[in-house]
Sequence to fold (540 residues):
Amino acid sequence: MALYSEKVMDHFRNPRNVGQIDDADGVGEVGNAKCGDIMRMYIKVNDGIITDVKFNTFGCASAIATSSMATELIKGKPVEEALKLSNDAVVEALDGLPTHKIHCSVLAEEAVSAAVKDYYDRNGIAYDPAIFKEHPDHEGESCSI
Amino acid sequence: MFVYADNAATTSVSKTALDAMMPYLTEFYGNPSSLYAFGQKAAEALAASRETIAACLNADPKEITFTSGGSEADNQAIVSAARLGARKGKKHLISTQFEHHAVLHTLAKLEKEGYEVTLLNPHEDGVIRVEDVEDALRDDTCLVTIMFANNEIGTVQPITEIGALCRERKVLFHTDAVQAAGHTPIDVKAMNIDMLSISGHKFHAPKGVGVLYARRGIALTNIIEGGAQERGKRAGTENVAGIVAMAAALKESCDHIEENAAKIIPMRDRLFEELGKIPHSKINGSLEHHVPGTVNMCFEGIEGESLLLMLDDNGICASSGSACTSGSLDPSHVLLSIGLPHEVAHGSLRLSIGEYNNMDEIDHIIKVVPEVVAYLRSISPVWDELEKGTRKHLI
Fold:
């Protein structure tokens, strides 16, 4: 049995929306190099719609594939809808992930959320801080799945 | 092009080994414990294999016990020494941080039973110092177990010197020689080795057979109870065909150690030279004390699993010590033990070359690895920060 689904391997081999956006409206970075994965997500927002999204990822195949899938799932969507992206939705869209790789999909959800928070902060858009969970960056701590 | 560059993981079965074993699968399939001549034919093959293997190690055939592989041999050697020590009130064992898990987990099990374990740190060059072993020895030390050659970085330990020290201090010395047997000369007498583990599939025998050498006079503790096979020290009908293949493969490897090394070392050195040109890369482990075929390097800013899967797409089989490939949260305990930071250890690559590889395959690796590293760096936020200077290069 292959380690990953065909879809994961496709997004790993041919990641969508890879790169950076120099004049991004929001940038979110989550993860820790010590733990072996970091995702950075860039969004461009026009009239409340995510018109462009790009990512950079340091990590394993599933980290790259979940980043890629997350960008596809939020591109063209209203910001509020992107915030609702769950890691389960990313896993489902990839036809599943091995159990010990589920944390990669959580990281993808957190990267989108961090990018939106940055967009809100930059533009002085009011929000309920409770919608953004605290993401410990594990610096100096042990890594978690 | 398909390039198998993971010979430290396992090797192909050689024609010599396959030819030697085939008659014992098809024609002479009797049980060596059976009294009739057909069974005794298999028993004779076992005896001949035991002699061949003993000769390769400069041991006596009576000192050779066949096991299911290196892990079982490690388990039995360590448990035996611990039980012998306990009888004299000696319950302290010395080993190293970068042993195989077959050793580390057996030691952890003994710790839970009340034994004390000291794990020595290898130096940055991946070599254990004899002085460190000497400092760790206590009056109640019953065993020193230190691997002959490390499985990930290929460094060879000062076995003869450690053995001499242990002999002088009357402490048993075991070495896990799984990565050394057939690749570097072993002489248990000259090297002062009391116990030694080897595994057939690392030198072109099939998987599932190994050897525990235990010097005469060392009473082994059974790991597997049952029949009286292996002088009552390892129950279970012997894997006759596998053992015959292992003897043939070990003899062939030992007869050609220098010739194989002369073929492998130029390939390995070319890998080091060319892959070493990749910026912010690092070669792991001393090149002075090294088995011929193992190349272990780190590339900053990338993660090992991605690297391996992209190499796989290009036909190259290799391995890595990244957390993602180890199935745990931490990168390889071996790379951490030689002082590499986690970030760097995640980007490790092990290529292990054998005598069946050729320069065309090395050229393919040299072409593909830099391309894949460059691509993964181009999409890595860590590399981006390293390049912009917002993150400090560690290598």
Chain B touches chain A at residues 301-306, 309, 313, 322-324, 327, 329-331, 341-343, 346, 379-384, 391 (CB under 8 Å). The mean pLDDT of chain B is 96.
